[in-house]
Design goal:
The chain is α/β, with parallel strands linked by helices. Helices cover 33% and strands 23% of the residues. The protein has a single domain, classed as 3-Layer(aba) Sandwich (UDP-N-acetylmuramoyl-L-alanine:D-glutamate ligase). The protein is built from eleven helices and 13 strands.
Length: 297
């Protein structure tokens, strides 16, 4: 495999509301839906729809959600050998509120995702070492992320970490990353709030040894910081309907395009276009475009 995505799979339970409720507030919504989600799964599906050769390693629960997600992933074209099953835990779920303005608030119950262990990945160790890129997030145990980074540190595999949801990461972990892709909140958390300017936050992470720091800035695009300097990438203007998986689309598309031989600049530009396209469509994975959708626009 040229690209492995290792991460979470959730069943998203979505409710549309006039606005995101405040603590203690009850609101009557309109539509509701049950969608396939999870940062790992979203990014893997985005990478697949971008035309990448993908191995998606995830852990599903022993329940109807797990069965439905497994069938969905097989239909998307993922090899079944990487779709692991936890016999004792339920699948991961997420409660998602989406406002009329396109904003969202998300609460996640990890379920089987929390049981994806280094031992689960050992059968795939040699495959991971020979991959071109490995994309991970933080909805699986940090020890598992650390294991993969340590396993592949002397190999040809380039590790990309989307540090979401935010948590503390050691300097040793950071300097072994080829790329990190925080949003502004995550970058502030990783730099412990010591800097406020986005360029300073990106530079602070780069100085810790990360090869490429790519900060996502929502509708403003992204900022790349590496040894060549700092470069901004603008996002196209669109009318948002649901931003739930936009960051995941950006991460998955970019990783897939890199694994197909695109330059970093080209991969970021196309991934930005894909992310912007996704916010105009409701749902997480239902909003992920195929590469042909972008070529036709």
């Amino acid at each position: 495999m040229k690209l492995f995505v290792i991460g979470s799979s959730n069943m998203d339970l979505v409710i549309k509301l006039p606005k995101i409720p405040s603590p203690g507030e009850t609101l009557l919504g309109s539509d509701s839906a049950m969608n396939f989600g999870g940062k790992g799964a979203n990014q893997a599906v985005a990478a697949k729809r971008a035309g990448g050769q993908i191995g998606f390693i995830t852990k599903l629960g022993n329940d109807i959600y797990g069965d439905r997600m497994r069938n969905h992933f097989i239909k998307e074209g993922f090899p079944e050998e990487y779709l692991l099953k936890d016999e004792s835990r339920p699948s991961g779920t997420a409660q998602i509120w989406v406002s009329e303005a396109g904003e969202n608030a998300i609460a996640v119950s990890p379920g089987a995702n929390a049981a994806l262990s280094p031992e689960d990945l050992m059968p795939f160790a040699e495959q991971l070492k020979t991959a071109d890129f490995i994309l991970m997030q933080l909805e699986i145990p940090l020890k598992t992320v650390e294991f993969v980074i340590e396993l592949t540190k002397d190999s040809s595999a380039k590790v990309i970490l989307n540090p979401a949801p935010a948590q503390r990461l050691s300097d040793d972990l950071l300097r072994k990353l080829w790329m990190i892709t925080p949003n502004e909140h995550e970058a502030a958390y990783l730099t412990k709030g010591k800097v406020e300017n986005i360029e300073d936050m990106a530079d602070a992470l780069f100085q810790k040894g990360v090869g490429n720091v790519l900060m996502t800035l929502g509708e403003r695009g992204s900022l790349l910081c590496n040894k060549k300097g700092k470069t901004y990438f603008k996002a196209p203007k669109v009318k948002p309907r649901d931003s739930t998986a936009a960051g995941d689309v950006f991460n998955g598309y970019r990783a897939a395009l890199l694994s197909k031989g695109s330059s970093l600049k080209e991969a970021i530009e196309i991934a930005t276009k894909a992310a912007a396209h996704s916010v105009t469509i409701e749902g997480a994975q239902p909003s992920i475009p195929y590469l042909r959708d972008l070529e036709n626009n």
